[in-house]
Specification:
Layout lengths: L6 H20 L3 H15 L2 E9 L5 E7 L2 H7 L3 E2 L1 H10 L1 E3 L2 E4 L1 H4 L28 E7 L5 E10 L7 H53 L4 E6 L8 E4 L1 H7 L3 H4 L4 H4 L5 H10 L1 E8 L5 E13 L3 E11 L1 H15 L9 H11 L8 H15 L35 E10 L1 H8 L1 H17 L6 E6 L2 E9 L1 H15 L3 E3 L2 E3 L2 E8 L6 H26 L1
Antiparallel strand pairs: 1-2, 1-7, 2-3, 4-5, 5-6, 6-7, 8-9, 8-12, 10-11, 11-12, 13-15, 13-18, 14-15, 16-17
Helix pairs in contact: 1-2, 1-6, 2-6, 14-15
Length: about 550
């Protein structure tokens, strides 16, 4: 290859070099590329030995390929040289363009460094350009951005001479193509790894989607996916069989609805809050037959980083049995076990909810304060020029309760009728408590039938009952007491016998400024007055 006076030989060498470069382009992996580089240096450039030292991720150089000598390959392949030692070699060599040549006269200092090498001793050169066994020639392979990719080391030219201008240029051209081949191989490797990683991610995504589909479709409780935003916000996009069974509606029908179409009117606010904030809530959903079922809903908004919220995943759990049990417990806690009427605690709660602690003489003043507060609300936080902000009390939304005889009212109020049965103790004594209980149940039924739907009939305990009736005047309350007494007096059939009880009523009036105990005590005292007066009348008549 060094016969520079023979153009034919150069042309043949170019053909070999072109063939080797073509083989570089056909290499399928990084390992194939590196071995092809080493083989091509031996086959086309006229060297008996070549090795490729590739830069590892940690910076050191690994002997990745060796060609031309099996013994050298066995001794060098897979060994690593430190980056510092390689940089020292490349820095001390003679610069042949991009090549680095270290003659035997200087290379002896490298004999004991940590770079893997294959050199033998020999006699001094017989002529100036004769290759010595300790000569070293390196071709650094750089990427387009200057990064060192590898170092191609060649040894033992076949003609025994150090490369001349033609040989150096050929080696440099080959090194440039080798660097391009390594860059391409690395790019292909990165692409292949990215494709493998993408395929694994896609497989994992498909597996995750399949797991979600099965978990969604076969979940024992209801599942739904609804739109967030778009043309039909809240519309159900996807529902599972459990939700269809729970609501008694097929998939095709449910997909025309949103939860807002199915929720009980009283629970609409709960649904809106839950949909906006996420989380859990308990509400009622409509079944196909028109009934409602109590459910627990838990919302999760699935967000897209680019486009914002997309869909809402809702888990729907049937809690009808638990809710029924809770309502039954609450009913038992607030109602009399025998008659089913509100008990003493519930009566006091309902009465306490209607009255406040403001005494009657301050009603007018509080109304005036409320009007002033509403006027000041428009100027809240705005003071007079240079002054402090306006100070006002919050508007009082409570509607004060007053007795009919109090001034400023409409002559009507909240009547409290205290009822005590007459003759009940003798029934208990003569016929037993079973008979007495049956009488109490019947009296409760007659009282409930004798009042309006929005009135309250409660049992305080024993044979004492209380009726709360809103919007009555004194005459109306007296008429109501008479009607209820007349409803109680008729005989009651119990266990084949007829028994009779009477009733005494005391009428009191609820008013703000009074406690519930004071209100009930007032009605109770009037009942005893009425009971004594009726008892004295009977004695005088006798």
């Amino acid at each position: 290859m060094e016969t520079e006076t023979e153009p034919y030989v150069r042309l043949a060498s170019l053909r070999e070099l072109h063939q080797v470069v073509t083989q570089l382009s056909a290499a399928r992996s990084m390992a194939d590329t590196l071995q092809t580089i080493a083989d091509g240096a031996v086959a086309a450039l006229g060297f008996e030995l070549a090795s490729v030292n590739v830069v590892r991720p940690d910076g050191d150089l690994l002997v990745a390929a060796v060609a031309g000598n099996e013994r050298a390959e066995a001794a060098l392949a897979g060994r690593t040289g430190p980056r510092e030692a390689w940089e020292r070699r490349l820095a001390m060599g003679e610069r042949w363009g991009e090549l680095r040549f270290i003659p035997y006269t200087e290379g002896w200092v490298l004999d004991h460094d940590d770079v893997p090498q294959w050199h033998t001793t020999g006699p001094a050169p017989r002529y100036p350009d004769e290759w010595h066994p300790m000569d070293r020639l390196f071709a650094p392979l750089h990427a387009s951005d200057g990064e060192l990719l590898a170092v191609l080391e060649v040894d033992r030219p076949r003609n025994g001479r150090r490369p001349g201008p033609w040989g150096r240029e050929a080696l440099q051209l080959y090194a440039t193509q080798a660097a391009i081949a390594i860059s391409n191989a690395r790019l292909r490797g990165n692409m292949q790894r990215a494709l493998v990683r993408l395929e694994r991610e896609q497989q994992a995504l498909r597996a995750s989607e399949e797991s979600f589909r099965q978990a969604f479709e076969y979940a024992p409780s209801g599942m739904a996916i609804a739109e967030v935003g778009g043309d039909n916000p809240g519309r159900l996009i996807r529902v599972n069989d459990a939700l269809c069974r729970l609501l008694g509606r097929p998939v095709a029908v449910l997909r025309r609805y949103s939860f807002a179409d199915l929720v009980h009117p009283e629970d609409t606010g709960v649904l809106l809050r839950t949909s906006a904030e996420g989380g859990r809530a308990e509400l009622r959903l409509a079944r196909r037959d028109g009934s409602y079922v109590w459910v627990s809903v838990r919302n999760s908004v699935v967000a897209d980083a680019a486009d914002g919220p997309q869909v809402q995943l809702t888990h729907v759990e049937d809690i009808e049995e638990r809710k029924r049990h809770e309502l039954a417990l609450a009913h038992r806690a607030s109602h009399d076990a025998l008659t089913g009427l509100p008990n003493s605690a519930e009566l006091r709660a309902r009465l306490g909810a209607r009255v406040c602690e403001v005494p009657p003489e301050r009603f007018a003043g509080r109304r005036a304060e409320g009007a002033a507060a509403r006027a000041a609300e428009a100027f809240r936080g705005i003071g007079a020029a240079g002054g402090r902000p306006y100070d006002h009390r919050p508007y009082d939304h409570h509607e004060h309760v007053r007795s009919p005889e109090m001034p400023g009212g409409d002559g009507k109020g909240l009547a409290v009728l205290f009822c005590d049965l007459d003759g009940f103790k003798s029934i208990n004594d003569r016929f037993g408590h079973g008979c007495g209980d049956a009488v109490l149940v019947e009296v409760a039924r007659r009282l409930e039938q004798g009042v309006r739907d929005n009135d309250t009939v409660a049992r305080l305990g024993g044979d004492e009952f209380v009726v709360l009736a809103e919007g009555l005047g004194p005459a109306d309350a007296s008429d109501l007491a008479v009607r209820l007494r007349s409803a109680i007096i008729p005989p009651i059939r119990v266990e084949g016998r007829l028994v009779r009880v009477g009733a005494s009523f005391g009428i009191g009036w609820a008013s703000c400024g009074m406690t519930t105990e004071e209100i009930l005590e007032s009605a109770d005292q009037r009942m005893y007055v009425e009971k004594r007066s009726r008892s004295q009348g009977r004695r005088r008549a006798g």
